[in-house]
From TrEMBL:
HAMAP family: LarC. InterPro entries: Ni_insertion. It comes from the Bacteria. Belongs to the LarC family. GO terms for molecular function: lyase activity; nickel cation binding. Keywords: Lyase, Nickel. This is Putative nickel insertion protein. The keyword Lyase applies. Signal peptide: none annotated. PANTHER family: NICKEL INSERTION PROTEIN-RELATED, PYRIDINIUM-3,5-BISTHIOCARBOXYLIC ACID MONONUCLEOTIDE NICKEL INSERTION PROTEIN. It holds the Pfam family Ni_insertion.
Length: 382
């Protein structure tokens, strides 16, 4: 399994993430075509630069004159995404999730509804290009799991459309809730709203370096050359070899007054919004009432969003939230040739022995296209 560790010793931003992923070896053809799909007038410049003698890749987005001053709302960004017809479905769905994380934080800061909020500095196409570009490169490299180190929180002031604001930016402070951070005496913005929104969506754990066989290290160069320290983002790309122990949050609640089809819908929403797993167990409640217990496994730092969905979309009036540890065996994506065509599969390694499991959606499509019993496709893999 390809695993990525984000080492934000000097902070994180969307352009630094793109630069570091390119430095890891991600091809840029799809990235360039995606930028053009977002705006025909936008151009991407990728070049080598040094910070404190360390080389890395810097990505600069060139936009039409006046674009930096444009304000956009959540629906404006969604409309642009819908116009990108060739965009990978996973990239599009995850981009919507990142935008929602960003807009919900800004809405909370300004006391407005997401749908009525218009961003100033973050309203330009640069924000969308940073988000979509990062996701395209992650997909291109075949990265399946992402972890991150703690985030450095600086002090000082930044200029915004609303005047001077303290570091970190108020929206960054909101998005940092539940994440490990540490303070540094640096008078510059280290963690940008776009950078932390991407991490909240992509990272499955924060903290210790995961055990892996390192394949490559890449550096993304930040715009500012401060001289006193290397303004770089470091990414470690490797292959996971052993069981991984990840801290997660478990959200549970019991429900006895909802139709099953609505629970199924809620389950789909939770998985789409970033739940690692979601399952429903039949239970007998007090006074012999039949009901179900809803279990949601959430990445650390994402539980507030998923808990909000449970409370909003179900009839429950309370949930339990507790920390848990998740143990995963090494796995990787692969393809298998069957008598009827190729399907996606997952190969896992358990105590030195390999097992291969077909991916349901891929097998289902093949079954429907060829009018083949799904069980026959599964048997051909075993």
């Amino acid at each position: 399994m390809n695993v990525l560790y984000v080492d934000p010793f000097s902070g994180i931003s969307g352009d630094m993430l793109m630069g570091a992923l390119i430095d890891l070896g991600a091809p840029t053809q799809e990235l360039v075509s995606t930028v053009k799909a977002i705006s025909q007038d936008a151009d991407l410049e990728i070049r080598d630069e040094h910070r404190c003698t360390i080389r890395g890749k810097r990505v600069i987005v060139h936009l039409p004159k006046g674009e930096e001053c444009k304000e956009r709302g959540f629906k404006d960004f969604l409309s642009i995404l819908e116009g990108c017809l060739t965009l990978d479905p996973w990239v599009k769905e995850r981009a919507v999730q990142v935008l929602r994380i960003l807009f919900e934080a800004e809405a909370r800061v300004h006391g407005q509804e997401v749908e009525r909020l218009h961003l100033h500095e973050l309203g330009s196409l640069d924000t969308l290009i940073d988000i979509v570009g990062t996701l395209v490169l992650v997909r291109t490299l075949g990265i399946e799991k992402i972890y991150s180190g703690p985030l450095p929180i600086s002090r000082g002031w930044i200029e915004t459309a609303h005047g001077k604001m303290p570091c970190p930016a108020p929206a960054v402070a909101v998005m940092a809730e539940g994440l490990p951070v540490y303070g540094v005496e640096t008078p510059y913005e280290l963690v940008t709203p776009t950078g932390i929104a991407l991490l909240r969506s992509l990272a499955q754990g924060f903290g210790e370096f995961p055990e892996m066989v390192v394949r490559r290290v890449g550096h993304g160069v930040g715009a500012r050359d401060v001289g006193a320290y290397p303004n770089l983002l470091r990414l470690w790309l490797g292959r996971e070899r052993r069981h991984t122990h990840t801290q997660v949050m478990e959200i549970t609640t019991v429900i006895d007054d909802m139709p099953g089809e609505i629970l199924s819908y809620v389950q789909g929403v939770l998985l789409k919004e970033g739940a690692l797993d979601c399952y429903i167990i039949p239970v007998i409640m007090k006074k012999g009432r039949p009901g179900v217990e809803l279990h949601v496994i959430s990445p650390v730092g994402h539980e507030a969003r998923l808990m909000e969905i449970v409370l909003r979309e179900t009839t429950t009036i309370g949930v339990r939230v507790r920390p848990a540890e998740r143990v995963c065996v090494p796995r990787e994506r692969t393809h298998i040739e069957t008598p009827w065509g190729r399907i996606d599969a997952k190969r896992v390694e358990i105590f030195g022995r390999e097992r291969t499991y077909p991916e349901y959606e891929s097998a289902r499509r093949l079954a429907e296209e060829g009018s083949i019993p799904l069980i026959e496709i599964y048997r051909s893999v075993k």
